[in-house]
Amino acid sequence: MLILNRKLIAGLFVLAISQSASAQLVATYQFNNTLNADEIGVPALISLNAGSFVTDMDVLGQTRTVYQRTANNTAEQSALRLDTSPLGLTANNYAVQLVFTFTDTLDSRGTGGYRRIVDSFDPSNLQDPGFYVGPGDYLNIYQSGPHYGGPALTNGTYYDVVLSVSPSGENAYQNGALAVSHTGTPDAIQSHFLSFFQDESYEYGNGKVALIRVFDAALSSNEVAALNNNGNPFPTSVPVPPAFINALTGLIPGVIMLIRRRKQKE
After folding, report:
1. How many whole angstroms from its chain centre is CA 19?
2. Residue 246 — pLDDT band, cuts 50, 70, 90?
3. Which single residue of 52, 161, 177, 245 has CA 20 to 30 Å from 2?
């Protein structure tokens, strides 16, 4: 005889509703000597022009394994790429969280130049619009001109940065706080790819990355602050796979119907 724990069912119901009511985490990369995702069935990051795993003693106050990107010139940029096609993302409604640092710039303009963070264009036809550290070392959403803000970033210091993209525009956050906004056509994902730290020309900088998370919708300011977790944005548990949440959500109506039938028999 099937015995149903109603408290357990209620808990699962709350979990499923809470996950489906807001942006869902669909991919997590912690660079623990691998480019694989934490989640099962999620594609690994693609390494461009190699990189290496190193131990860094001060990643937001922690000792962690990170992915170090090193290139000698902008023609051989060390970058990362993600095929988002299995993730079910909407092209103009997603978010990316990165914990990273730049260590230099290969843009000859120095602090007057740019260093790419995220590019959503087709890798075979990268374009200038996108998300950067721009002139003055500020976060910069470049869409029909620069939109920049927040405190200046310092080489060698890690930052928790979030780019949140919605159909109406983009918000960029630095260490949990809003740094810059742009209202208008956003950086929609082209051909299912997201590129990290790769530029179509010379706006490139070497650096290290400790965490990348991808979400299937834009994040609110409260969600970004919660992710920052008072300066400790790293996961403390194994992520719940999106497929599990979807399956669980699909099961709930049947479970509720079974409970009702049992009540009728009592």
Report:
1. 17
2. low
3. 245
Residue with tokens 């548990």: 237
At residue 140, what are phi and psi to the nearest 5 degrees?
A: -140, 120
User: What pLDDT, in 10s, does the model give residues 208-218?
Assistant: 999 999 999 99
- Residue 57: predicted pLDDT: 97
- Within 10 angstroms of residue 223's Cβ, the number of other Cβ atoms is 18
Residue 259: pLDDT band by 50, 70, 90 thresholds?
Answer: low
Provide the 10 A C-beta neighbour count for residue 87: 23
Give the pTM. Answer: 0.82
